[in-house]
């Protein structure tokens, strides 16, 4: 389908097959909370032109997220970076800390006088499985790769722990007091009745 020019014109308004001075992968994906890198290729006539990464299914109104300066220097904006390798006629775009709502149509694009060149890339995000982790006595969720997410609410656990503690106190305190009383009773001083001394014999 991607090779059908009429399909491209229908799905990506403003796109023209004549713009294939720049190309890239048709689709790519990355893990939630992870990163992905897209390699875009261009022809030799565009070495010193600015390259950029654009978001939105409509080519004519897509939003530029990051753009090169016309050199090979890396440029980073928020969670997206771009670097132009003019020797190999490629530029690399890296998206970090991926979120589910990052899934969209993006464009490998080259700035020029008149209409810019662009190639659509369908980016999908693979949902990650949260893992419950304990840090300093507090539960936190972590996605694959060790990135911590938001702390898990555990108010119900705290309430349960407090109730258990109170029950434990009320049960153990009387028991300890009873044992202490028994020990004191057993070890109390014993008084032996003394023999009554008979009065001395006056005779």
TrEMBL record:
Keyword Ligase: no
GO biological process: immune system process
Organism: Marmota marmota marmota
Domain named Ig-like: residues: 13-126
Subcellular location, principal: membrane
InterPro entries per the UniProt record, alphabetical: CD300_family_receptors (IPR050671), Ig-like_dom (IPR007110), Ig-like_dom_sf (IPR036179), Ig-like_fold (IPR013783), Ig_sub (IPR003599), Ig_V-set (IPR013106)
Similarity remark: Belongs to the CD300 family.
Topology versus the membrane: Single-pass type I membrane protein
Cited SUPFAM superfamilies: Immunoglobulin (SSF48726)
Gene Ontology cellular component annotations, sorted alphabetically: plasma membrane
Keywords: Cell membrane, Disulfide bond, Immunity, Immunoglobulin domain, Membrane, Receptor, Signal, Transmembrane, Transmembrane helix
Record-linked Pfam families: V-set
TM region(s), chain numbering: 165-187
Protein name listed in UniProt: Ig-like domain-containing protein
GO MF, one annotated term: transmembrane signaling receptor activity
Subcellular location: Cell membrane
Coiled-coil positions: none
Domain of life where this protein originates: Eukaryota
UniProt xrefs under CDD domains: IgV_pIgR_like (cd05716)
